């Protein structure tokens, strides 16, 4: 099959990494093209036989009216592209690009699959919500990450839950674990790193004295979080954005997620492959799909630093429980292998092509 992916750019990010992994897997048997709009080189590895087309249009933050122009530039670029090239299927990533791709396909006969990578409550704009309601039913198919979203998108006929695949890593269970507690992600409000710091502050320094705590990631809340850590007298390393996050996974004994909302939560999936014991808030949506509370990890109430502190202290003290959680979580690995997710995508693509052809 000739398959084209459409995404705004290939910088660092969860959806960008998923696209890269998926495109690489599919390229072994299919002809893959990626359409993007920025001029930056891909952050993640893309195999050389994949064609990348950059339009250099509609990038950069230009204010309200500039953003309107930016969207229109992207729309024109996509429409010209869809008229010029022919594919068996076009797969767009992320809601704004999904809408623009479907609009650009108006009057054309390309089969468009749209892919959501956040939960639907993240989108606050009433305009974009309305545009999704108008355009999404015309898609040949819609992929999403959770049942929470599957149950919402009833206005799209063909849809499937296709969770994210694990990225390729050189580590093959030869981990040299340290007394390391890892939290990772964009430093923004809904990721709840303030709750993580407050939870850590409630644990006795005597218990934590032999442990290192790292927050990997960057974002608009970094300065506030650094100030909060000082106020709470929490000894934590802000590592900034880490390209090779697998190096930290390989060392960490415990991974903590304190998000207020998620689309899927890659860190909870990825850390399974590195034998990390996991604690997460039971937020919308994703963690409950990845952790069976008390069996292969702990789930805690959102914004409850006391419960998180209690569960974290239990894991710090109890090596046997950490090992039990790791062993149980390892049974989930095959669910997220590149091969398994890639084959599910191929099946879904063929179904979408077949059903829209009838």
From TrEMBL:
SUPFAM superfamilies: UDP-Glycosyltransferase/glycogen phosphorylase
Coiled-coil intervals: none
Source organism, top-level taxon: Bacteria
GO molecular function: glycosyltransferase activity
Ranges where the Glycosyl transferase family domain occurs: 175-329
Cross-referenced InterPro entries: Glyco_trans_1, Glyco_trans_4-like_N
Boundaries of every Glycosyltransferase subfamily 4-like N-terminal domain copy: 13-141
Pfam families listed in its UniProt record: Glyco_transf_4, Glycos_transf_1
Protein name in UniProt: General glycosylation pathway protein
